[in-house]
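Data card: per-record layout.
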Amino acid sequence: MRINDVLLLNNNYEPLNVCTLMRAVALMLKGKVEILHRNGHVIRTSSKDFDAPSVIRLRYYVKRPMPVLRLSKHSVLARDAYTCQYCGVSSRDLTIDHIIPRRMGGGHNWENVVACCRRCNLRKGDKRPKHVNMRLLRRPKRPHYVPFIPLPTYMRADGRADWTPYLPVFSEFRCRNDSR
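The structure for this 180-residue chain is written out next.
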């Protein structure tokens, strides 16, 4: 997370979004939000100085539909904690791999897609893991949580001490994130 990122909460303290510092200041000046935490920096204007926010809360409730967790490369990488599910290497330069290749009838679903480093992806090719003596570290499954903020953003936000009290706790997710 960048220092300019601000966690935006709904009126009921539910995380809605991560916005830029400029957007947060605009909401503050319009009187639409209250500051819950400051990041320690000062914003200077021609007329006054004020502390930069880190967490803000809307003064009114915004009704949002329940989000749908889409199967995407970023969601799969976040679910697998940016770790290759064959060799265990952690990296930001990962691809996704279909455990059972699509040409063999494997579907494009949460249970058949894992994060994979390029070396393991080339080694496996379009074969099943058992045919090339490869094993999965963990069986993939659909995440049980659906945060309002995007999953990769949640992963990055989970490490910020001032944001943690406002983020929902997903034990299956947090324990991997703490081990980094």
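Known properties of this structure: Residues 5-65+148-171 form one domain. The beta strands are 5-9, 15-20, 33-44, 49-58, 94-98, 113-117.

See the next section for split statistics.
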